[in-house]
DNA sequence: TAAGTATTTTAGATATTGCTAAAATAGAAT
DNA sequence: ATTCTATTTTAGCAATATCTAAAATACTTA
């Protein structure tokens, strides 16, 4: 009689949950959310984002490094400035749902 | 000449982003995600959830209190046990997207 | 090469998270 | 009333998050 591993699906669930946690932690910050929302409309450089979001360049740079490390954005230098752009379809999908929930006119 | 407040939409954005942050922080934890996923299929008592998720009752209870405080779940005592159920359409919407992203068979 | 602009990195302070262990509460059963 | 079972609450600790200030890096221009 072969021993079936019934807890495998539990381990799979834990693995999925951990991946989702890592992903959600990137989004679970008001400043990073605003950064990502600004990038939805196209690439922006750090100074522009800093002004739009209202963060110091240093603080913003740390957020950007985090998002880039997580694979949600990419960067490209052109001359003095560095341009960031959204590169995660998953992030865009979740942002779209969040916008429906939290950015309705009446709320 | 009337002075138009152009930063109003920025303040609105900040408000929305803060609300979204509060919401996402509740989800951005593997154990809480698993709890919520278990509740998608119907109400459960604390002991059952603790076993399913693999958490101590105390730790779980703290997570449940948090989720309840955030309005994502409700509880009802029946006899000795306390039953929890999902009560947030918003949470369900995001969980559905996360499931599509992270719980595909091949990943 | 020196000076300026854009951005990143580091260090450190403070707040939040999430666990464990122990004590407290609430209802049920004896 | 006492005891049992289910759950919550509290206290305390280690890890993580996020800001500021200061120093470092990278490219451009004089």
Automatic annotation (TrEMBL), chains A, B:
Presence of the UniProt keyword Transcription in the record: yes
KW Transcription (keyword) present: yes
Swiss-Prot/TrEMBL keywords: DNA-binding, Transcription, Transcription regulation
Any matching Pfam family: HTH_5
Residue ranges of domain HTH arsR-type in the record: 12-107
SUPFAM superfamilies: Winged helix' DNA-binding domain
InterPro entries: ArsR-like_HTH (IPR011991), HTH_ArsR_DNA-bd_dom (IPR001845), HTH_CRP (IPR012318), HTH_MetalResp_TranReg (IPR051081), WH-like_DNA-bd_sf (IPR036388), WH_DNA-bd_sf (IPR036390)
MF terms (GO), sorted A to Z: DNA binding; DNA-binding transcription factor activity
NCBIfam families for this protein: HTH_metalloreg
The protein, known as: ArsR family transcriptional regulator
Organism the protein comes from: Acetobacter lovaniensis
